[in-house]
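Structure ticket #2291
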Amino acid sequence: MRFIITFCALVISAIAAEPKLDYQITQEGVLVTEGKEKVLFYQRTTKAQQGKHARANYIHPLYDLSGGILTEDFPSDHLHHRGIFWAWHFLEVNGERMGDGWTTKDRSWDVNELEVKRNTDKSLTLHLNVHWKSAHWHESKIPIVNETTSIHIHRREDNHRKIDFNISLLAKQPKTRIGGAENAKGYGGFSTRIKLPKDIQFRSSKGKVTPQRTPVIAGTWMDMSGKFNGERTSSLTILCHPKSAGYPQPWILRNKKSMQNPVWPGQNPATLSTKKPVILRYRLILHKGKASTDSITQWNKAYCRLP
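Resolution: structure written out below.
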């Protein structure tokens, strides 16, 4: 009996000692932590550099599993890039251009609702409601697009952590179109501006991937590994869900001074409905070392099974 009591006490103590996902709401946004480690910061309010490149509604910093900062904000080569973000060059209402959300020209993001929910599995979900506005549309007083996004942060599992993004876009005005860069590259959509070390390597289910100037057809997931912080290799994997618009999406990849982007809708704009939203879904997996292709394939299968 004494052994059983002691064993139960040890189990309870071990569970209590497990790091807990927690959050702190600040004037600028939400900081998510796990135990003493920082996980990410969601930027709710508008942030600018010397009054230029104003942006909101993105993640920076995103921390790797060793506590190092993985993302970049206001990088000198592209000051409009920002951490983990989702943005498009082209926004049009009834044939009239409404600024540029990618370069942050004449555009703004009003995060009018932000709720953090604790889930039964001890994960956290940030629920966001965001109005896209433009100086060219009623002086930024009336929204053009209503974005509803959830960011689901999972607890760390061994040497990896999952973060899910579910982005829903609904037009508030008829004849609203959205698109990427108006050239052969067509970049735009869910984007990761991460540090790019000299030893960066790209890999998909088809094997090693070499970045090209134009989008690459490389399957439904992309793994990026290298010495992002220090001498140890770590990785960031992006998975695309089958219910994401344009699935399977092509990839814009760069090995220096840029971002990585599963592309939707590309250079040909898509019309947003006022009744049925466009859905974009992605999972980021942060992991130490270099995960095997078999492991990533299993992660991808599990993610694709989610409703």
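Closing remark: Helices lie at 2-17, 293-304.
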